[in-house]
Amino acid sequence: MTIEATVQTGGVTMPAGLPVRLSAVRVSFPTAGEPLEALRGLTLDIPAGSLTVVIGPNGCGKSTLLRVIAGLVAPTSGSVALDDEGVPRAGDGRVGLAFQQPRLVPWLTVLDNVALPLTFKLVSRLPLVAVRPGSKTTDVARTFPHRTPADVARTLAREALDRVGLAEAAGVRPAQLSGGMAQRAGLARALITDPPVLLLDEPFSALDALTREGFDGELQRLWMDQPRTVVLVTHSVGEAVRMADRIVVMTARPGSVARVIPVDLPRPRPAASQATAAIDAEVRAALAEVHPAELSSWTDR
Amino acid sequence: MKRLAAALVSLAAFLVAWKVLTVLTGTPDYILPAPEVVGARAVRAIGSGILWEHTAVTLSEILLGFALGAASAIGVGVALGKSVVVERVLSPYIVAAQSVPILALAPLLDIWFGGGLLARVLICALIVFFPIAIATMVGIRSADPLLAEMLRSLGASPSQLTARLEIPSALPVIFGGLRVGVTLAVIGAVVAEWAGASTGLGVLINIANQGLFDTPLMFVALATLAVIGISLHSLVVVAERRLVLR
């Protein structure tokens, strides 16, 4: 059977990222005793195409916040919307996720891991249309005549691996990858469907400082080449200042937004300058204000 | 090759010990025949076609019973693993069926299903079912929740999650159940034949023991069952090595 396939986004041109709006979001988890309240009254507007960094102490609900945006956790109360289109659903294609642990399926090759999101979607035999954010359908629609959905998924997975510099590792299994390579594979998987919103939960925190800085640079390059809304969770003030358009400082649990600090500096940003030092100091002051007991851990970073 | 050599050395040692025992004790052949007596009887049984006639029946019962039992056990095990409600509803029946001795159930199944191949296959499947179903349930529940969350975020449907994560994660445990199940299938086939059959290695054992007082033939039938069990177990191990990532 001849299948003409492309990547599906419903034939609608995606904008360069989607805005994310969270309003009075509260999330609590049932426990054996009292419910554990992770987020309380969290209101945050994340502009389309921005690179927002979320920072806060351990357990303040940063990861829960990302899960809410991704549709993996439903708010107990309050609302979350992407592009005013209502509650996000897990796997609806609008959000890509990368975690601190790359979470690659151990029995699949790197290529098949990266192709997974497409494998899950390309079960239909209907013609599919590939649309990249910020482009018209006709500009970027890619057809693959006489190809099966699996072929298409692998072709696009190879391209995604190439974009993160991991093309040579396509055929190996995750156990054979270094930590940095596994993170690249996780990033390629998150990017393969060109999601308008990319959520990164401390994706580089397990890497050494130099590798991490390299990854930060690459992430910025990918974001500038192809703008989308990026939300990055980190513990590092330095990384936040290096990367962000806006830094969201969260309170201790139950998490809410303590401050939003705009970072209006040109890119790429030098590791140390007067301007970055001023933002750095402002972020540390904000952190000290909302949870002074945690300050000592921040001053070291 | 090393594995084969070890197996041959082990077999040779077993035969020597057996022979020494018969010589030292002077036991007559109708109680403990020497290995060469059993060997000679096997050659005659093969030559006359009697061994193959009974083996073919038992082997088909084992294979069909194991296939049916394993397939249904894996299906039920997946359902048990994924749904607490299903587990609560089905568990008492599954445990009850396992708790009742198969020897007691076999005549009943033989009556219900007409005493033919179907009844014996069902008895075989029943004895195979429990260890595989429980192993599958445990395996399904052992899937990494972080990977499951990742796949859900990538758009995996519940059935895709089962096919791409839960079953592959469960494979090592499922194969543990299959290893136990395949040997139980051999026992199930013999028990089923004792409950009512005219051919099969279980029947041959009865004939040799009670009708002909042909103890060497009984040993031939027992050895054939052992060879079937070892062969099928080896096949499961080979499949496990191919399918389970190490």
Give the helices and strands, then pairings.
The complex is a heterodimer of chains A (301) and B (246).
Chain A lengths: L19 E10 L6 E11 L4 E5 L6 H9 L6 E6 L12 E4 L11 H12 L15 H4 L8 H15 L15 H13 L5 E5 L7 H17 L3 E6 L2 H7 L2 E5 L6 E6 L11 H17 L4 H5 L2
Chain B lengths: L1 H24 L9 H14 L1 H33 L1 H16 L2 H11 L4 H25 L3 H9 L4 H38 L5 H11 L3 H29 L3
Helix pairs in contact in B: 2-10, 3-4, 3-6, 3-8, 3-9, 5-6, 5-8, 6-8, 7-8, 8-9, 8-10, 9-10
Key attributes of the depicted protein:
heterodimer, A: 301 residues, alpha/beta, 6-stranded mixed β-sheet, 3-stranded antiparallel β-sheet, 19% strand, disordered N terminus, B: 246 residues, mainly alpha
Mean pLDDT of chain B: 92
Main beta sheet of chain B: none
Q: In angstroms, what separates the terminal alpha carbons of chain A?
A: 57 Å
Q: Alpha-carbon distance between the termini of chain B?
A: 21 Å
Proportion of residues in β-strands of chain A = 15-25%
**Model regions low in confidence, pLDDT < 50 over at least 5 residues of chain A:** 1-15, 124-141
Shape by Cα distribution of chain A: globular
Tell me how many strands of chain A there are: 9
Q: Output the number of helix runs of chain B.
A: 10
Low-confidence stretches of chain B: none
Number of strands of chain B: 0
In short:
The complex is a heterodimer of chains A (301) and B (246). By secondary structure, chain A is α/β, with parallel strands linked by helices. Chain A has helices at residues 62-70, 110-121, 137-140, 149-163, 179-191, 209-225, 237-243, 274-290, 295-299, and strands spanning 20-29, 36-46, 51-55, 77-82, 95-98, 197-201, 229-234, 246-250, 257-262.
Could you walk me through the main structural features you see in this protein, from its secondary elements to its overall organization?
The complex is a heterodimer of chains A (301) and B (246). Chain A is of the alpha/beta class. Chain A is built from 9 helices and 9 strands. In chain A, the strands form 2 sheets. Chain A has a 6-stranded mixed beta sheet with strand order 5-6-7-3-8-9, with helices on both faces. Chain A is globular. The N and C termini of chain A lie far apart (57 Å). In chain A, 45% of the residues are buried. Helix content of chain B is 85%, strand content 0%. Chain B has 10 helices and no strands. Chain B has helices at 2-25, 35-48, 50-82, 84-99, 102-112, 117-141, 145-153, 158-195, 201-211, 215-243. Chain B is globular and about 70 Å long. The relative contact order of chain B is 0.13. The model of chain B has no long low-confidence stretch (mean pLDDT 92). Chains A and B meet through helix 2 of A and helix 7 and helix 8 of B.
